[in-house]
Amino acid sequence: MPSLAAQIREALAAFADFRTPPALIGGLALAMHKVVRATRDVDFLVDGEDADRLHGLLLGLGYRCLHRSVDAANYLRGDEGLDVLFAHRPEARRLLASAKSWDTGLGRLRVIDAEGLIAFKLQALVNDPSRGRDLDDIRSLLRNNAGALDMARVRRY
User: Fold this and answer.
1) Average pLDDT, stretch 98-118?
2) Which residues contact 4 (CB under 8 A, 6 or more apart)?
């Protein structure tokens, strides 16, 4: 079974020519904001205009599409999950454009800021109130980044 690290490296190579490079979101992105928790998949925010191209690339890498809509897609290859949110709305596009680049052992990763992660996790809770893990993640982001967060932005979300 390939590791999440190998999966991310492969995805970054596949995304190299995208107009706006995708940004890491979800459980793995939390680590860049002082929150560590176990996760079993990789989550990216991708420009909505790259949806068809991304779909073709992932199918070419052997992923199977489990779900695809205008807003999101879920892919699986063996036991490797890769989930995507598509940035169409102005706020999601802004978050994607402003994602910070980090040089890591996996390569150059773009990661959504902590306030943006809170926004996505709040949206997930609105969509499915039973998602307790998202509420725990929000609390951890708030606690571990208290002095650095733009709380006016968080409250707006």
Assistant:
1) 92
2) 28, 39, 42
